[in-house]
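Thanks for the sequence, V.! I ran Polar-differentiation response regulator DivK right away. Repeating your input here for the record:
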Amino acid sequence: MGRRLLLVEDDERSRRLLVDVLGYYGFEVVSVGSGEEAIEVARRSLPDAALLDIQLPGISGFEVLAALRSMQGTDRLPILAVTASVMHEERARILEAGFDAYVPKPVNIRELTELLQRLLPESGPHDRG
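Predicted structure:
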């Protein structure tokens, strides 16, 4: 089975598209539309990586990042910021906050899957054999 990803995206169309495409590439994707849901799902499902939209309803992607970094089991999780903001200052702020990578919107799927392959180990706690 593929690596388990947590996708946090409030735009339903974007979320469905990413779930379908990442599933095609062999990832198991759990998707949610808010930061609050993301924290609860991450606590329960312990994903192998997370893709966080920065601008979410309720709590922001930065707040979700802080929560995931503070929880045992998700504290070392590769976490990617997915955002439409392309300003240099925002990108620097994202990386300084502790995100492992920055993925601009619209998402280039080939680049995203290559990045995930680099960030995720070949085997891990969620491999089922």
